[in-house]
């Protein structure tokens, strides 16, 4: 029989409670009750509710880094990444985008984490900063830098890279919110995502790539 990892269980049960009631709506007593341990036992693993939250943020970032490896995202210098994306056509963009979409939609940790931040970002400036960094700013900055390099290499038409990044990412973010929790419409969401990428590619890609 597998050994019960109390520290991990505390973390995930806390995440579910935060996603349902918000950070301020949950007490350490609530978490201990959900895990099935005494409050004093919980403090042996985490000093405070804030430490649990901070660990959740670190764990989520680590999980996404691990997931990114399985997505087979192009890595290395931006110049080489741009070339790999460009020569792979829109199929590589569709594949990677759908896998990232799946991760945020279906991974139990990622899905609950986003719900938790969505609830708390209006109450807490630090949580709002984390939400923007994780789900908006990092993605936009990365895509803008990538599109700028693809333009410089002649793979894409001349345009404002940041506006391109917004046009690329905004529909994906909207789809994620629209289909969150609707498992039976997952195929529909992926199909729409694919059409979005095809249309984006058709608008910005140069006709011939050597």
Automatic annotation (TrEMBL):
Residues in the DNA-binding region are 27-46
Name of the protein in its database record: TetR family transcriptional regulator
Write the record's keywords in alphabetical order, separated by commas: DNA-binding
Domain HTH tetR-type, first and last residues per copy: 4-64
Gene3D superfamilies recorded: Tetracycline Repressor, domain 2 (1.10.357.10)
This protein's species is Ruthenibacterium lactatiformans
Q: Keyword Disulfide bond on this protein?
A: no
Pfam families for this protein: TetR_N (PF00440)
One annotated GO molecular function: DNA binding
Q: What is the lineage of its organism?
A: Bacteria, Bacillati, Bacillota, Clostridia, Eubacteriales
Keyword Transit peptide, does the record have it? Answer: no
The protein's superkingdom reads: Bacteria
């Amino acid at each position: 029989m597998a050994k019960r990892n109390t520290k991990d269980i505390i973390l995930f049960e806390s995440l579910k409670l935060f996603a349902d009631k918000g950070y301020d709506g949950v007490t350490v007593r609530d978490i201990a009750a959900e895990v099935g341990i005494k409050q004093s036992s919980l403090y042996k693993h985490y000093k405070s509710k804030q430490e649990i939250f901070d660990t959740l943020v670190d764990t989520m970032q680590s999980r996404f880094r691990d997931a990114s490896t399985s997505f087979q995202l192009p890595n290395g210098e931006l110049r080489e990444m741009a070339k790999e994306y460009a020569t792979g056509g829109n199929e590589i963009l569709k594949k990677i985008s759908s896998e990232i979409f799946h991760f945020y939609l279906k991974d139990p940790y990622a899905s609950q984490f986003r719900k938790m931040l969505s609830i708390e970002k209006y109450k807490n400036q630090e949580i709002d900063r984390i939400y923007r960094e994780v789900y908006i700013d990092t993605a936009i900055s990365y895509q803008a830098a990538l599109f700028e390099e693809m333009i410089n290499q002649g793979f894409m038409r001349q345009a404002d890279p940041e506006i391109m990044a917004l046009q690329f990412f905004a529909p994906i973010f909207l789809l994620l919110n629209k289909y969150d929790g609707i498992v039976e419409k997952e195929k529909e969401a992926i199909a729409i995502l694919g059409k979005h990428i095809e249309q984006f590619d058709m608008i910005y890609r140069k006709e011939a790539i050597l």
